[in-house]
Amino acid sequence: MTRPPDPTRAALVRLVRDEGRRVLATLVRLTGDLQLAEDAVQDATVRALESWSSTGVPAEPRGWLTLTARRRAIDLIRREAVRTGKETAAMFLLDQDDPPETPQTLRDDQLRLMFVCCHPSLSLETQVALALRTLCGLSTSEVGLALLVPETTIAKRLTRARQKIRMAAIPYRVPEDHELPDRLAGVAAVVYLLFNEGYSASAGDDPLRPALVVEATRLARLLSELMPGEPAALGLLALVLLQDSRRDTRHDQDRRPVLLADQDRGRWRRSLIEEGVILVGHALRRCPERPDPYVIQAAIAACHALAPTWEETDWDAVVSWYDVLLAVHDTPVVRLNRAVAVGELRGPAAGLTELDCIPGLADYPLWHAARAELLLRVHRAADARTAFVSALQLPQNSAQQAHLERRLATIPTC
Amino acid sequence: MPHYVAFTYTEDLDWTAPEQADVMVEYDEFGKAAAAIIRGGAALYPTTTATTVRVQGGRGGDVLSTDGPYAETKEVLSGFYLLECTDLDHAIATAAELPAAWHGAVEVRPIITFPER
Known about the structure:
- The complex is a heterodimer of chains A (about 425) and B (about 120).
- Chain A is mainly alpha-helical.
- Helix content of chain A is about 70%, strand content about 0%.
- Chain A is built from 19 helices and no strands.
- The model of chain A has no long low-confidence stretch (mean pLDDT about 90).
- By secondary structure, chain B is of the alpha+beta class.
- Chain B has a domain at about 45-110.
- Helices cover about 20% and strands about 15% of the residues of chain B.
- The interface of A and B includes residues 121 and 171 of A.
């Protein structure tokens, strides 16, 4: 028989996980060794769950966890020293008197860990796995479930990553000013990749993987709290919140995607929209001469979020924002989205002209789908049919595929 | 007298692991036997610790570092530098200053520091 969920227990697990993430960042600084720090914190969190459920949560849970993890780390180092007959540098670090933990050291510890996990010398798939394991505090099996990758594969990937961090001496430090834009873009890319994978899964039967959305939002929030002066960090959080505000309306009860035009805007989450719009404002005021791509994308998302209906969207503003985005981030997909907005502002024929000028999207199902929709609106049913068929021949998630099949079925055969 | 480099090609192993102790004894024996002519040398950590550095668009362009060893066959091994750096970022930044990174690639591999015996 399964026990009913215990709310106190769930709250305790959450507390231990939340504090554990911060303690890990501190232990990494103290030991200089990610593997050791993770082992020690893991042990401390297990002990905390055991001890706190009987004795109650101590007055300073984080202090308790830090101390326990620190003792465990010393223990692990001693054991290793006995086995190999050598003292390690980590022992020296742990033996030193700690400067008192200030909000500043906690902030720096967490930032350093973020930049290590998203270091450009690690593969993107490794960065994503590390972010979920180390920054979000998911277990290896939870990471596997979230990424739809076998747990053993994730475990190997993480072990190799920790080895590389240690052996190749990837530094635990916040990048210097001149490196920061690139490195921050790297962290943001990992977070946004996680969000997108959760928000519109590229494979599998479920188009939405809520756990990834939650973790990505958590990381975006953390990044914006740690770097409140960086437009990219604010823009990323704004973008994630504004897109997530539509979560409940993007699919119908049968998990079929609902287009933005057809979504029930009354069910969009107002609190997320409000927070996102305010963040866009802050970020735009901080933008230097070269606007950040995340901020611009968030501004576009805000135009949609604030429009009472699809028809009443400020398409002029949307197209203008896409023009700004193209100036700093010119990709075929941005051009595609701009063409769709042009189709609304100046009519489907104008949108089609724009779409047909974009090279390099022949393998992208949404390009064919967007063409098909515009072709239908200019009464070229046969061409629309061909475009839907082309879209359906490309790989995509099953919900998207079902949507296209349904759209194709609405075209009467001549 | 001419100088030579002897690159060793073996299985991709962690030479610091206890299982490699026997082989390491054999390397030590070679080291002693050839001590008079050895001018330097090092064991490398496995290729999982490698980073390949390229500079896109030549000198001064964007530095692109990727996880893993150099994996193409167009270019050939043409030289090496032994660098003492503060960390991997320093090594990558230095590698990006090499002409090889502008026109080809530079594989950065950490070297094992064995404890003094």
